[in-house]
Amino acid sequence: MKMMKKTLLAASVAAFASTAAMANVTDGKVKIGVLADMGGTYADVCGPGCVTAIEMAVEDFGGTVLGAPIEVVSADDQLKPDVGSAIVRKWIEDEQVDAVGGLVSSAVTGAATKVLTDAKKIALISTSASNAFTTKACSPYNVHWTYNVVALANGTVKPMVEAGKKKWFFITADYAFGHALEGVASKVINENGGEVVGAARAPLGTTDFSSYILQAQSSGADVVALANAGNDTVNSLKAASEFGLTQMMDVAGLLVFTPNAQAMDPNVAGGMRTTTGFYWDLDDQTREWSKRFMERHGAIPAMGHAGAYSMTMHYLKAIEAAGTDESDAVMKKMKEMKPDDFFARNATLRADGRMVHDMYYVEIKKPEERRDSNDIFKVVSVIPGDQAFAPMLPECDFK
Amino acid sequence: MATFLGINLFGLFGQLLVGLINGSFYALLSLGLAIIFGLLKIINFAQGAMYMLGAFAAWLALQYIGINYWAALVVVPLAVGFVGVMMERFLIRPIANEDHLYSLLLTFGLALMIQGVFTHLYGSSGQSYAIPEELRGGTKLPFMYLPDYRAWIIVASVVVCGLTWWMIEKTKLGAYLRAGTENPQLMQAFGINVPLIVTLTFGFGVGLAGLAGVLAAPIYSVSPDMGSNLLIVVFAIVVIGGMGSIGGAILTGLGMGIIEGLTKYFYPEASNTVIFLVMVIVLLLKPAGLFGKEA
Q1: Where does the pLDDT of residue B5 fall: very low under 50, low under 70, confident under 90, or very high at 90 and above?
Q2: Torsion angle of C-alpha atoms A208, A211, A213, A218, degrees rounded to 10
Q3: In this prediction, what percent of chain B has a pLDDT beyond 90?
Q4: Where's the Leucine-binding protein domain (chain A) (predicted)?
Q5: In terms of DSSP bridges, do strands B3-4 and A355-356 run parallel, antiparallel, or are they unpaired?
């Protein structure tokens, strides 16, 4: 009887404690929305895979935080900014979403972060490339995790210019992301004593790059930089090889996600160097996580998948540490705590929301170097975060 | 470098040749559409999906059954054509007497579904299909490097387009077809099985898209959205060429490729709109298209 009383008491204390904790969680639950490209060009890069990664983080965290359940909802942005911002608005107003993860196309992310900032909700940006979210469009509620255009340019362009490849020609995706990447890379080239001899702007989704390749050929450049992504990169590299460009000049893919690298003919892509925020086969830690991801997703993780997992984990830990899911308190904790897991190495989350961590300068393996179809990159060098990312702007210092 | 009136001639010739290559590709694609759209008056928005299906079938055949490129050139168009025959018989025929908008919506929905299934199964990043051994390498021309495979596309396209044109315009079979679409009742009365002719013609047109898909597989990323990117341009070409004119579609395809190539040289920003600009002008001046007959 005494025993039972004790148990009863313990139970009611526990119940009381958990309601007390839950009182700090608005609406009694933590809800994460995943906004990504579920069926378009970037679907393999951050689509259903980002949902899987974020669900994995929630499960690994234990499914509850501060006694409140964690829920994940997801939606397809169709790569359209207006669709993306409408979904985010609905999530905030009708569904009590606390943070939005995924976030691929920079155009969609730009629209979504505006809505999130107005509502003081957190943007967990995993795959967007633009550096605007921590510079000219910076916000106290933006967290940008995996990489950005500056890191790509510093990682890939700088070592090549320093190695004596001075003259550059760009084949650029003709929209915000491509222009940003070309601009940042041109700056790196000029600062290191190189020269940009020309650029061809190809519309997003171009299939035939042959005429752009001809322009590159007659430009007299040492390096042709592909400032595009996804299928555009695959198609432009195909044309470059077909028209003999790869024998005349170096080709640098500025943004090559692992699924796209897998789609390239290894005879053509082998030897090309690029910069990535993550590779699945770095060490036991990355392999362990990637193996679990592969079992659920059916393909190796792209950098944004691993980033989405890592930042969701960090977000949940911050809620626990802050004792609340209130955005300002959580952001403060996220920036105080050092991210440290299989993804984030030597990492800090700066006051501007930029997560600075080790990046990897990698080379695409030649056919004879590959064990199987998942064996794509070999690491040439590790780029310390402070060399990869630009310093924080004073106006974006959100302490 | 040779220049004339301040124009870099080598660069210009290069773009012209690339334009011709793209043009022969357009010709092949618009040919299939011209047959279906022009003769059968079916607006087949699934033509782009059929082209994608052709490229994917070539890739799947090589990957899983070991059918090489040359065999795929024969087998895949037949298989895709068969899909077309099934499509016409069981989906399009039941609504054949309705407004044209119905077949447009039906085929558009079908295209989205096929594309969605392939994205689901194989992802959006595309697959790589190597250029066949025999066609690797190229020829060094004074003004550019011409890859053998691109030269092959010109040859293949000219042969296929020529044969199709001859078959439809010059043979008895072609005459039946043209008459059958012009006046089906009369042809039925003469004992010609018009529905069968329509089904087979539809299958043939779709098979041509499949063939274009196989030809495209080695040079473009084999991805689910490869067809939807191209479809609108090809429709524009058929409209410019004139409804129902097989020769018009072929010549317009070649011509538009060259115009696009020239635009890429002189004013690259306009290269993806120039075809539509031409379409607007042609429709204003000659509503039936360049080679079409006024109704």
Answers
A1: low
A2: 180
A3: 44
A4: 29-365
A5: unpaired
Candidate from B8, B130, B221 with C-beta closest to A231: B221
- Closest by CA to A135, choosing from A379, A395, A364, is A395
Q: Domain for residue B146, yes or no?
A: yes
Query: Would B65 be classed as within a structural domain?
Result: yes
Closest CA to B34 of B208, B260, B287, B224: B208
Count: domains in chain B: 1
Contact check, Cβ <8 Å, B221/A201: no
CB A84 within 8 A of CB A26: no
pTM of the model: 0.81
A/B interface, count of CB pairs below 8 Å: 106
Task: Give the pair of three-digit tokens for residue A49.
Answer: 């895979």
Q: Is the dihedral of CA A169, A171, A174, A176 positive or negative?
A: negative
Q: What is the CA radius of gyration of chain A?
A: 22
- ipTM of this model? 0.77
B130 falls within a domain: no
| B183, part of any domain | yes
Nearest CA in chain B to A242: B147
Neighbours of A3 (CB within 10 A): 7
H or E segment at B58?
Answer: helix B47-60
* Helix, strand and coil in chain B, % to nearest 5: 75, 5, 20
Q: Where are the beta strands (DSSP E) in A268-376?
A: 273-276, 348-349, 355-356, 359-364
CATH of domain A150-276+360-388: 3.40.50.2300
Domain of residue B151, residue span: 25-118+140-226
Q: Which residues of A touch B144 (CB under 8 A)?
A: 214, 217, 243
Helix, strand, coil shares, percent, chain A, to 5: 45, 20, 35
Q: pLDDT tens digits, chain A, 399 residues: what are they? A: 444 455 555 545 444 445 545 557 888 899 999 999 998 888 899 999 999 999 999 999 999 999 999 999 999 998 899 999 999 999 999 999 999 999 999 999 999 999 999 999 999 999 999 999 999 999 999 999 999 999 999 999 999 999 999 999 999 998 888 999 999 999 999 999 999 999 998 888 788 898 899 889 888 899 999 999 988 898 899 899 888 888 889 999 999 999 999 988 888 899 899 999 999 999 999 999 999 999 999 999 999 999 999 999 999 999 999 999 999 999 999 999 999 999 999 999 999 999 999 999 999 999 999 999 899 999 999 999 999 999 999 999 997
d(Cα A228, Cα A201) in Å, to the nearest integer? 10
A44 contacts in B (CB within 8 Å)?
123-125
Domain ranges of chain A: 23-147+283-357, 150-276+360-388
Identify the CATH class of A23-147+283-357. alpha beta
Q: Please provide residue B88's backbone torsions phi and psi, each rounded to the nearest 5 degrees.
A: -65, -45
- Tokens 């079992």, residue located: A295
The DSSP line for A137-199 is: T--TTEEE-S--HHHHIIIIIHHHHHTT--EEEEEEESSHHHHHHHHHHHHHHHHTT-EEEEE
Across the interface, whether the CB atoms of A218 and B11 are under 8 A apart is answered yes
Query: Are A214 and B18 inside 8 Å of each other by CB?
Result: yes
What's the DSSP call for residue B127?
A: B
Q: Contact at 8 Å (CB) between A171 and A206?
A: no
Dist CA A215 CA A220 (whole Å): 10
Residue of A231, A245, A258, A264 to mutate, interface with B, max B Cβ within 10 Å: A231
